Amino acid sequence: MNARVALIGAPGAGKTTIGSALAELWGCTFIDTDVEFQGDYGMSVAEAVIDDEATFRAREQEVVVRSLAVLGTVVAVGGGAVASDQVRTALARVPTVWLEVGLVDAARRTGLSGSRPVALGNVRGQLHDMLKQRAVVYQQLADLHVSTDGRTPEEIVAEIAAWEAAP
Q1: What is the distance between the alpha carbons of residues 41 and 166, in angstroms, rounded to a whole number?
Q2: What is the pTM of this model?
Q3: Beta partners for 144?
Q4: Which residues pair with 97 in a beta bridge?
Q5: Which of 9, 47, 67, 72 qualifies as a cystine partner to 99, CB 3.0-4.6 A?
Q6: How far apart are CA 69 and CA 91, in angstroms?
């Protein structure tokens, strides 16, 4: 028993938007592991990371592995969860789509494209480094690689649906 498809990618890649649309198209359940985490632990992912990142990562791993085991679902996996060996093992049992997003679109979609407080440091530089580092892992895990830059959700959903339906 496993999910129908897992969506991986960096923040701003469109995992929630695309996952919701795919689940609607296929008439199945959509699970966003970040939302599941918040429901289980009563705090957002951002709050949990700031509070205690090690505890957050252990809890996130449990949420993601559990979610990927739900038969027939579409699962949006938190961007950093792929660092876990257990998550990578669970993803190996599920058709996995990497929604790749470039720095410009990621910054725009996550709200980092405008002016930001200096106290936050070089947030866009950190985002760039994260995209570059995680791309290697996402590529290794993905059965399908879809670039989301400059594309509509409908185009992306159609590409994934056509791939998933192929023999």
Answers
A1: 38
A2: 0.85
A3: 97
A4: 7, 144
A5: 9
A6: 10
Place of tokens 């992912």: 45
- Name 28's Cβ contacts closer than 8 Å, sequence gap at least 6: 4, 72, 73, 74
For residue 105, give both structure tokens.
Answer: 């679109």
Which helix (H) or strand (E) covers residue 32, if one does? strand 30-32
> Which domains are present in the chain?
5-165 (3.40.50.300)
Reduced to 3 states (helix: H, G, I; strand: E, B; else coil), residue 122 is coil
Tell me which residue of 91, 37, 88 sits closest to 59, measured CA to CA: 37
Coil/strand/helix, residue 52: helix
Per-residue pLDDT of the chain (167 residues; tens, 9 = 90+): 689 999 999 888 899 999 999 999 999 999 999 999 999 999 988 888 888 889 999 999 999 999 999 999 999 999 889 989 999 999 999 999 999 986 555 556 555 444 333 334 455 556 556 666 778 899 999 999 999 988 999 999 999 999 987 76
Q: How far apart are CA 21 and CA 140, in angstroms?
A: 25
